[in-house]
Amino acid sequence: MVGAIPAAMTYYSRSKMPETARYTALVAKDVKQAASDMSRVLQVQIETEQQEVESKEFSLFSKEFMRRHGLHLLGTTSTWFLLDIAFFSQNLFQKDIYSAIGWIPPAQTMNAIQEVFKIACAQTIIALCSAVPGYWFTVAFIDENRIGFVIMYSLTFFFPNFGPNATTFIVPAEIFPARFRSTCHGISAASGKVGAIVGAFGFLYLSQRIGVRNSLIMLGVVNFLGFLFTFLVPEAKGKSLEEMSGENEDNDNNIRTVPIVYT
Questions:
Q1: Cβ atoms within 10 A of the Cβ of 35, count?
Q2: Cβ atoms 214, 208 nearer than 8 A
Q3: Distance (Å, whole) CA 116 – CA 114
Q4: pLDDT digits over 100-155, tens only?
Q5: What sections of 93-177 are H helices per DSSP?
Q6: pTM value?
Q7: Are 48 and 25 a contacting pair, CB within 8 Å?
Q8: I need a surface site. Which of 68, 96, 216, 244 has the fewest CB within 10 A?
């Protein structure tokens, strides 16, 4: 019940926020409202006037959409899917991994409070080790050095949060046209949740069948596949949303009301 309070506060705050000017103008087709919202946010005078602009709309999953954004959508969905397989399987089954390497005692040898304490200590050490530089020196001793494994394992949590765990939900919000942005982001996010389910059940099954060591190797393969699929995602740095989405590309001329800024 308490957890619903932040969600309700967020919902209320969002209901008071105006839609983005791009959405209001391009999707809702209410350019005057877009100009009004921009005036209120930017605190400048914005008026609308008739100008000749380029506009040619196409539907989601149409041939034109697939030509422009099909590979981009494949890139965002596949990378989010593959990342969540590895990310959630590691987070959910840390205790099993610690037990497999003998870092914490078997559950039957301690009570529940002792087990929670030891797992918490192990997770704290993992978090601290994530910031330790020079980890490559442990590679040569990984089979003999238990501490070396712990350091390397901790880095598998550091790098997903440093890169892909954040970019998987940022990039889909930048590279698609305004009218498809939420839908494509939702498809990508749904793909990630499927990956989380696969990781949760798949790692448990694999660890029982082929062992924890081989299961971690499989997760490494999954991460490598994710690396390959990142080449389908365009670089968004330094580019406007219009440039990334290609909304002004190869369009027919139409008359539309657009906002003009006067400072």
A1: 23
A2: no
A3: 6
A4: 666 677 767 777 787 777 777 776 766 666 544 444 444 455 455 566 666 666 67
A5: 94-100, 112-129, 146-162, 164-170
A6: 0.64
A7: no
A8: 96
